[in-house]
Design goal:
Mean pLDDT of chain A: 95
Order of helices and strands of chain A: EEEEEEHHEHEHEEHEHEEE
Number of strands of chain A: 14
Domain tRNA (adenine(58)-N(1))-methyltransferase catalytic subunit TRM61 C-terminal (chains A, B, C, D): 62-222
CATH superfamily of the largest domain in chain A: Vaccinia Virus protein VP39
Number of domains of chain A: 2
Number of helices of chain A: 6
Distance between the termini of chain A: 54 Å
Strand order of the largest sheet of chain A: 9-8-7-10-11-14-12
Family (chains A, B, C, D): Belongs to the class I-like SAM-binding methyltransferase superfamily. TRM61 family.
Radius of gyration of chain A: 21 Å
Catalytic activity (chains A, B, C, D): adenosine(58) in tRNA + S-adenosyl-L-methionine = N(1)-methyladenosine(58) in tRNA + S-adenosyl-L-homocysteine + H(+)
Structural class of chain A: alpha/beta
Low-confidence stretches of chain A: none
Enzyme class (chains A, B, C, D): transferase
Largest interface: A-B, 69 and 69 residues
Largest sheet of chain A: 7 strands, mixed
CATH class of the largest domain in chain A: Alpha Beta
CATH architecture of the largest domain in chain A: 3-Layer(aba) Sandwich
EC number (chains A, B, C, D): 2.1.1.220
Shape of chain A: globular
Oligomer: homotetramer
Chain lengths: 247, 247, 247, 247
């Protein structure tokens, strides 16, 4: 990943190819075996710093065809889903694969993500993104309509579809007792429908959250927020499975 | 973990002991081999649901002597630090151990957290908490003043001390090139000092963030936020190491 | 109004009576003809500053039986309603009278507020509050159910009732062309119903807003927000009257 | 004011002239004696609604050379300054005149605003704006550097200059006892300096606030906030004058 002084960024693989930028050509062969954090030059002499891209950088630059879960919500969702090394989780629908990748990182190399998507073009895009990020072996991609239910029983489910209230029973059936469910939806009307269904279907400890993240300018003598910010991405709904019958 | 209908929560180990609550005694021996998510009764017949505590539940109920990093910031910090399976990271100062535990979960069983704390009572408390959460083997606890510097070179550093601007050089020296630094501080004056030091000491891609999380009441026919919310915990500062000299 | 060093406040009339406080008795006769802003003592020698109460102070200390519109929303509503000297406006329902008083201040001594309330106990309370604040002569209080409509045609209407969607047509009929309507409601479900009715009933330039106000601690060496804040009061909906038929 | 179906707005005087728009020409002579709220057509047959501009509309469309105080903060400042009919207030510096006009509306026809500005071009612009809004007779414009102090003693002062901490003593000298001061500044560094000076110079009940206003889309079946919002305009600082000596 190259970052120029004007803060423009280019993510690429160091494979010997040349990368064209508005600041000249980056010859990636010159970067082989060089340390990250170093300063280099394009063929026109423009400086850039070579950085190891973070996962958040990959997300901002990823190829996408859908709205994705942004880092401001992603980290909180991972915590509320309690996803950890070795867990088995379901991601439905996959979309462009950003949250799927985040779950795959969290379950680690001995965990597994079962990723459902009914639109083939999105599943292929997600596969492409996951392969690039080296996470494909942790994910089982499934081209399937989730109205038929899921094939696994898992620790946690992340549900990101336009009509999540239609799949609450399917989520219930595929969660272990006290397993965690997270649902994101952009409108208040959707939240109302989802919460109503959760309450009717054995879910417990339901919480609804939204986040606002505000960034500040980095002039220490004039410390102040930026003028504008993201006002809304999605409401986040969390719930845990409780058995209906007493045991 | 037992959750009563009044939403009161009790976290305990299922070890055969009895747990006293305002709703009667929980006999943990009755829970052995029972599934999480089931409903049980105290000796007075009060119902509770037995849940597997999430890490966020552990944090809310943990024994602490210091301000801790809250989940609303914790997930975002883990993403911005790009901590993943196998990473080596530094946590300074440890405090009560909440963020240390979050880092330990993220690096997985083959990663390592080097945790610095100069106050012995806090280090012991952190050790106790980490042991309870089964994370102690991933953490190297060090009773040490960080003004002398760190003993390792790592992928990422989390710095949470009252005067972070005094340790920027030490952080620089212990990060790999393009390694990630996260600093939290509650006041704008601290942010000003930290950012000034970061800019003078080879850090790059500096970002300052704060988060506001707002929770909604779960009545779907009267969907609205709660009346009050957390207004402030800490400002989060992120930066990446750039080498001074061109390479 | 007396403000003690512990920030406790007492609002009273300087009429010669004695005011009992946790810091001793304030003899108001000693304050006659003394300037506001001066420091005085209770009978036990405790210091207080005598201030002319602002309208916001009166609101915070007012006798109320209902939820009131808070200053954070009040000033914005007055601007969006475009209320100014000499205007005629409707306030329905009056409740405890806080917003009614704000409107009365804004229309000035030659304007008029027509204030509707169907519950007699609230109307009496509002009358009492308005008299105390010297605003009663600008307000016409009406004990009346607004489902029958309003008796006037006015520049602006402020509607604060539990079921505002039922009175949109009445508001339309009592507004001049391009007149301004403001509605407050606490839940998203109410907002949905109100906006739907506004769109069906000739309203225009509909805007929905909510405000978050965050206060900072006043230590200049440790500038930071308070820990907690108000997360929600009400959604504010604004609209303007458009004639159905082309003219 | 004409509002087209694409929400584009044009503010003009109905004086018989023609107004060119991207939707065709508006012949203002056709609007004479027509009611506000009516629907009319341009010469190409495009529909528009004629509305009486609110003060907030005037502000959004005003000619300006400076950053102005936005409605989200303006209404709250007027309340905290407790400005009402008949008051005398100081506005320094005037800038483009938006807040000056808001103060002039609040003091009414029998109140007065003393408006200080040291840059002649801004004073002329403010004069032009105030004349257009019909508020010039309530304002005394003064081309003067406020470091020399103010000529009046007033109920309230609004201070909006780059270095407000340099004029705290002048504000103190020109306020009645318990009079209200409001200061706006965009950076935390400025807030720190201002609060420090206020505390040293006899001010009392100091409060620091910031506001976030979030707007929602008006589709009642998909109620949700807009994607982006204003993140910051200025911090608002309020204080009241206390006499140094006991009286």
């Amino acid at each position: 990943m190259a970052v120029f002084e004007d803060e423009s960024e280019f993510i690429f693989t160091v494979d010997g190819k040349q990368i064209g930028t508005h600041k000249g050509i980056i010859k990636t062969e010159e970067l082989v075996d060089k340390p990250f954090g170093g300063t280099f030059h394009t063929h026109t002499g423009q400086k850039f710093v070579a950085l190891r891209p973070r996962f958040v950088d990959e997300i901002y630059h990823m190829k996408r065809k859908t709205q994705i879960v942004y880092p401001k919500d992603m980290g909180f969702i991972l915590l509320m889903l309690d996803v950890k090394e070795g867990d088995k989780v379901i991601d439905a629908g996959v979309g462009s694969g950003a949250m799927c990748a985040a779950l795959a990182r969290a379950v680690g190399s001995c965990g597994k993500v079962f990723a459902y998507e009914k639109r083939e073009e999105f599943l292929k895009l997600a596969e492409e993104n996951l392969r690039k990020w080296g996470l494909l072996d942790r994910v089982v991609l499934k081209l399937k309509d989730i109205s038929e239910g899921f094939d696994e029983v898992v620790d946690a489910i992340f549900l990101d579809v336009p009509d999540p209230w239609n799949y609450i029973r399917q989520c219930y059936d595929s969660l272990i007792g006290s397993g965690n469910l997270a649902i994101v939806c952009p409108t208040t009307n959707q939240v109302q429908q989802v919460v109503d269904e959760l309450q009717k279907n054995g879910f417990f400890q339901i919480e609804i959250w939204e986040s606002l993240f505000r960034q500040y300018k980095t002039n220490p003598e004039r410390l102040r927020p930026f003028d504008r910010m993201v006002a809304h991405t999605a409401y986040m709904i969390f719930a845990r499975k409780k058995y209906f019958k007493e045991v």
